[in-house]
Amino acid sequence: MEKTTPRLSAVAEEFQELDLIFASGSDLDVVEKGYARKLIHAISREDEVLTIETLKSLGDLHLHKAKSNEHKAENFHRACALYEDVLRYIRNEEEKAVIQHRIRYAEKCTKLVYSKKYTKAETGLTVAELLHGVEKKAKVKEHDVVPLREGYTDAFVDSIVERNKGLEVESLKSLGDLYLEKGRVGRDEAAFTKAAGLYRAALDRCEDSDGRETLKHRIKYTEKVKGKAEKRREKPTGNSKADYAKWLVPPSTACKAALDVISQINKKRIAGADSHMNNKTPADTESTTQ
Question: Highest taxon of the source (predicted)?
Fold first, then answer.
């Protein structure tokens, strides 16, 4: 995708509120969560410009923390790893040089040297264990999937930093599962679109043949269910209030259903980590009954 001035201007407007909070130096955790949400949004839309700018913003945030001596080594590494991930989206040599300059600047101002071999203690955990930990840490409350969504989002950012391709794929797929169930239960067409985008992003990163087939099936199923939802919406009953009410599903119902599905998936991960890519969601179940 070509970077254009109008597009960059639009992205700058999207970041304005978060950038102002960042500049003030307050609520950096809020800023980090905000940037991470935008990263997932950008990836689900296959928006390379927004993805690049979000990765750079996250990198800048962690560099700021490192310069403030807040977990200096870890934040320095996170900043450089996020900057480096930008390179996968850039084809212009001049733009690549700018990103590499950011890494050198980070090294200069922190007096640290970036090493791709930097690891954290939990790196030895399997993908299944890491994602199970996400569910436990989220402390999910009934009818609320926000902590779980944030947990999977954090896991995705961690996967970039740690170069954990398996975690990268699985965290995107798990987020896709959340949005798929939100679309199924809440009849939310935007959620279907986001789920399909996240599955495609996971597919682009997946190197396992079985995993790729699973993701292809998820995408087809999501598009199929979305199509059915669109057709149902186009069939009026003659009563506008009835049509509207038919599409209203309490958010708590959609959230509860999503939590139930994700909980089942995570239990299967722990029961058989090696077969995680073959976990059955409602999409898989339907295919076996047709």
Answer: Eukaryota
How many DSSP H helices and E strands does the chain contain? Answer: 13, 0
DSSP string covering 186-219: H--HHHHHHHHHHHHHHHHH---HHHHHHHHHHH
Of 36, 123, 22, which is closest to residue 68 (Cα–Cα)? 22
Neighbours of 1 (CB within 10 A): 12
The dihedral through the CA atoms of 159, 192, 16, 2 has a sign that is positive
Question: Tens of pLDDT along 40-55?
Answer: 999 999 999 999 999 9
Q: Which domains are present in the chain?
A: 5-110 (1.25.40), 121-280 (no CATH)
Distance CA 203, CA 1 (A): 19
- DSSP class of residue 248 equals -
**pLDDT above 90 (res 232):** no
The total of other beta-carbon atoms located within 10 Å of residue 180's CB is 28
Q: Which of 170, 178, 153 is nearest to 256 (CA)?
A: 178
Mean pLDDT lowest for which of 9-23, 111-125, 162-176?
A: 111-125
Does residue 156 carry a pLDDT above 90?
yes
Would you list the DSSP string of 125-166? S-HHHHHHHHHHHHTPPTT--HHHHHHHHHHHHHHHHHT-HH
Phi then psi for residue 130, to 5 deg, are -65, -45
Rounded Cα distance, 226 and 20, in Å:
38
Class of residue 112 by CB neighbours under 10 A (exposed 0-12, middle 13-18, buried 19+): middle
